[in-house]
Amino acid sequence: MGKLVRELFFAQNGKLLMQNENQPSSNGPERRRIRHLWQGSILLLLFPTFPSDWATGYSPENDEPESAAVALPNAHAHNDYLHDQPLLDALSQGFVSVEADVHLVGGELYLGHWLPQLFPARTLRETYLEPLHGLITRQGGRVYPGYNGTFFLMVDVKTDASATYTELRRQLLQYPGFQCNPYFRVFISGNRAIPKILNDPEEVMAVDGRLPDLYTPIASDLMPVISDNFRKHFRWRGKGSMSGREKEKLKGYAEDAHRQGKKLRFWATPDVPDVWATLLDAGVDFISIDDLKGAGVFFATRTNGRVKQAGQDSTAISRDRLVEPAANLASKAR
Questions:
Q1: 93: nearest Cα among 62, 123, 69, 127
Q2: ω before 120 within 30° of 0 (cis)?
Q3: Is the torsion defined by CA of 20, 26, 32, 33 positive or negative?
Q4: What pLDDT does residue 7 have?
Q5: How many C-beta atoms lie closer than 10 Å to residue 136's C-beta?
Q6: For residue 67, is it within any domain?
């Protein structure tokens, strides 16, 4: 695929480059055009072969889940790029918060951690927005029919904050089920266009806070979650027990967040059950987890880790229920 794209690119632009090289140099638009063509050539050479998180092989989006789970109100699906089917895998385990790393490229939002996944293309719209909106539309505004809490989609912006926010806002407004929905909330992390988010009269999105934001007067509806780097604030790395001093410090952060009606989350935590348990015991709301299946087993042993409403079915989402409405919504969303 990459070889074919490069051959087509040079076939279309090779003559133009040769012509411009024979012309007198200038500082006008022709020089800029030549520079952009060469930059495009370099990108085409790199993208199809770079060994990163957007490698080409991944499974179809409509596979059946391997297991089922009920809603896990403390589970945040971290590092989506580690999974072939990030949303579907998280929903099949009952996660109520999911994370999508995005890059704005050519007016579209592509998934990817270090680089955008272009070959094959995986977009935020197709992987997250359409499937989630399909579920919400069919299930009374909820992602899980028996879960009365809020489902969070955290968008970790990797490109320019303002431009990416503008495109994300445009896309979200195409899905009416996302707006003014107490059971669903999108919030931005990474490169955050904070002034635009806080001053949006329609409050299309919220913003991910940091620990210093606990001491600023930002309401929880605009900053529902406080997230920070665990290694930056704590020395414990998961071996042995956390010191009493650090436990009190962690509990203090959780209490401060809860007083404001906000949830607390950390990234860069060891992805092991002992650490998950320590964070939960201290009052941390969202545990960033890469081992999605392991989390299902872990939370099954904690009485406060699973939520099931009386008389309601809160089993996790099957791929059929997720993908079918998304296909019907594709044409409307665009």
A1: 69
A2: yes
A3: negative
A4: 40
A5: 21
A6: no
Give the model's confidence band at 306: pLDDT under 50 very low, under 70 low, under 90 confident, else very high: very low
DSSP state of 198: H
Give yes or no: residues 103 and 183 share one domain: yes
In a shared domain, residues 129 and 196: yes
pLDDT in tens, 124-160: 999 999 999 999 999 999 999 889 999 999 999 999 9
DSSP 8-state code for residue 315: B
More confident site: 18 or 140: 140
Torsion on CA atoms 51, 54, 58, 62, rounded to nearest 10: 170
275 touches 269 (CB < 8 A)? yes
**Structural domain of residue 190, as residue ranges?**
72-333
**Number of residues in the chain:** 334
Residue burial 229-268, b: 16+ Cβ < 10 Å; e: rest: ebeeebebebeeebeeebbeebeebbeebeebebbbbbbe
The predicted-structure confidence for 217-228, as pLDDT tens digits, reads as follows 999 999 999 999
Residues 132 and 183 in one domain: yes
Contact of 65 with 94, CB cutoff 8 Å? no
Q: Do 189 and 88 fall into the same domain? A: yes
pTM, entire model: 0.74
Close Cβ partners of 220 (under 8 Å, ≥ 6 residues apart): 260, 261, 262
Q: What's the number of domains the chain is made of?
A: 2
3-state helix, strand, coil in the chain (%, to 5): 45, 15, 40
Could you tell me if 316 and 66 are in contact, meaning their C-beta atoms sit under 8 angstroms apart?
no
Q: How confident is the model at residue 83 (pLDDT cuts 50, 70, 90)?
A: low
